[in-house]
């Protein structure tokens, strides 16, 4: 058992009892920013209805890799990607893929809560309207369902017309997750979703992710080793753009194969 820096590791929530089918198959993915080879030949399976954590020191390529899974890196002019990410029998890196549709199916939540400067209900309804939903009844119902899914409904049901920016940081982040859920994605990508939050709000998000994984595939970038140990079924350790090790979280944290994995998770570097 690897000794952790601050805490005892608990795997209570994430013991992989039954291997889920692979939802996204990442094969030989290389990502470049101009001459900078930021992600090097990464091959991993991402299992459905499981949480996969991406860990590693700053600058090792975690966010770059995450953003590639729903083609957000397309927005960066110098970014270029090679390899295959198979999803529903299609290589989503193929330039012909409809990225608007892809991002409906593979949603994203960022480090800083980024609600639209609109009302709470509009935050859920705008993406739906953009996707062509017109029925007021449907819009209202989806708003209620999504806010209930993230445990926010009772806190905001009497002030749905108030600005989303009037919510606390933790509530805003749950609203952003609800907004991602509105489009009924299969996969939710989260880039350090709790790093800007206080411990109580972070704990709520962790609980929420454990609930959501029964219905959604989740990939999360985290700097928090305890968080990965608590919630992730699978963990991938990146270092200097390379995937050093991938496995069940329990195996990676208790019996890592590589010395650099052991050093990182025990806080000896990073
Ligand atoms: N928009 C960008 N344009 C150019 N280079 C970038 C861009 N984003 C990241 N990089 C480079 O890609 C490499 C990987 O960065 P990335 O942000 O993916 O790492 P990370 O592991 O997520 O780091 P952190 O934990 O600090 O967020 C770094 O060398 C970084 O400078």
From TrEMBL:
Does the entry feature the keyword S-adenosyl-L-methionine, yes or no?
no
- Sequence ranges assigned to domain ABC transporter in this UniProt record: 24-265
One annotated GO molecular function is: phosphate transmembrane transporter activity
Can you cite an annotated GO cellular component? Answer: membrane
Q: Identify the domain of life.
A: Bacteria
| UniProt-listed InterPro entries | AAA+_ATPase (IPR003593), ABC_transporter-like_ATP-bd (IPR003439), ABC_transporter-like_CS (IPR017871), P-loop_NTPase (IPR027417), PstB-like (IPR005670)
The record's annotation in NCBIfam families points to: 3a0107s01c2
PANTHER family per the record? ABC TRANSPORTER I FAMILY MEMBER 17
Report the protein name in the record: Phosphate ABC transporter ATP-binding protein
Which species is listed as the source? Sporolactobacillus inulinus CASD
């Amino acid at each position: 058992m690897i000794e952790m820096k601050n805490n005892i590791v608990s795997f209570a929530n994430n013991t992989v009892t039954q291997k889920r089918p692979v939802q996204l198959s990442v094969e030989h993915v290389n990502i470049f920013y101009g001459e900078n080879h930021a992600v090097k030949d990464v091959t991993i399976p991402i299992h459905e209805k499981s949480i996969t954590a991406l860990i590693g020191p700053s600058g090792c390529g975690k966010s770059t890799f995450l953003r590639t899974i729903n083609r957000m890196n397309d927005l960066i002019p110098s970014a270029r990607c090679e390899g295959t990410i198979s999803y529903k029998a299609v290589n989503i890196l193929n330039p012909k893929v409809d990225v608007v549709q892809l991002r409906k199916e593979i949603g994203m939540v960022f480090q800083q809560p980024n609600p639209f400067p609109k009302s709470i209900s509009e935050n859920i309804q705008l993406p739906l309207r953009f996707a062509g939903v017109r029925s007021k009844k449907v819009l209202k119902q989806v708003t209620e369902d999504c806010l209930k899914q993230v445990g926010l409904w009772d806190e905001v049901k009497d002030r749905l017309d108030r600005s989303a920016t009037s919510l606390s940081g933790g509530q805003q982040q749950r609203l952003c997750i609800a907004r991602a859920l509105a489009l009924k994605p299969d996969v939710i990508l989260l880039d350090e979703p709790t790093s800007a939050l206080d411990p109580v709000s972070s704990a709520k998000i962790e609980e929420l992710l454990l609930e959501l994984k029964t219905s959604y595939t989740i990939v999360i970038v985290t700097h928090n080793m305890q968080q990965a140990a608590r919630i992730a079924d699978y963990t991938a350790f990146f270092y200097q753009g390379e995937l050093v090790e991938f496995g069940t979280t329990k195996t990676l944290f208790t019996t890592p194969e590589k010395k650099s994995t052991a050093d990182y998770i025990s806080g000896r570097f990073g």
